[in-house]
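Hi everyone, sorry if this is the wrong subforum. Our group has a chain we'd like a structural model of before ordering constructs, and none of us has done structure prediction before. Sequence below.
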Amino acid sequence: MTYQYHDESIIKNLAEDTVFVFGSNMAGTHQGGAAKIALNHFGATKGVGRGWAGQSFAIPTMNEHLQQMPLSQIQHYVEDFKIYTKNHPKTKYFITAVGCGVAGYKVEEIAPMFKGISHNVIFPVSFRPFVEKTLPKLTQHLLHAFIQNTVIFNDDVVQAVQALDLSEAEKSLAKIVINTPMYPIDSNGRDRSYEISDILNTLKNKNVLELNSYNEETKILGGVILAILELYNINEHDFIAAWHGQKEIAPPKAAHRAKK
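Answer:
Right subforum, don't worry. Here is the predicted structure as tokens:
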């Protein structure tokens, strides 16, 4: 099934027929991230940490004590939401990266829970590999093809990626990581500049790319690499090995791991 996607930029208004879906805590404090946006702009109600309110819908990812919920419990609330979307087919649902901000889960842990949901949803683009197709292997050819300035900083990134000698799955990955906000802050408002600087230092020492200075463009490129590391759940050394053709990296298994 093909869904609609959004680029995960911050929004403050939606069409009247579209509901803002966010991760919440059961206390309904709505103090940060998408929950704060829901409170300020989409009718979320203080003290209501689950379900519909105004033009918003809360999916709990933390308990009333603001502690991370187990994945198995979050899955339960996602299943309730899937039933809700099916029962309200004339409404669209703008889904944020539920559970991937303050709650601390990774996209590959949360996104697969939404597989099979009805068509009337708009997913964050980072969910795409997990609700549609599996990610491709990370190979030297794939990485060298799109991690270059002429692609990442092209005025038309989509066209630049489409022109590459890559499979459709590989092109999809390239567009996802290039468009994933990382620098100077990520889509959850977290400052990632120190992580990116560490990554760039490691890559420079291992002769990956030509990094003569750490200007804005270089840091944005480092953000693309950070997006790959997080998407595949790997570290810089794995990336370096793939870059030099020493190994190919399989995508992470999209398993629902319940944390105790």
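For your construct planning: The chain has eleven helices and six strands. The first helix runs from residue 33 to 41.
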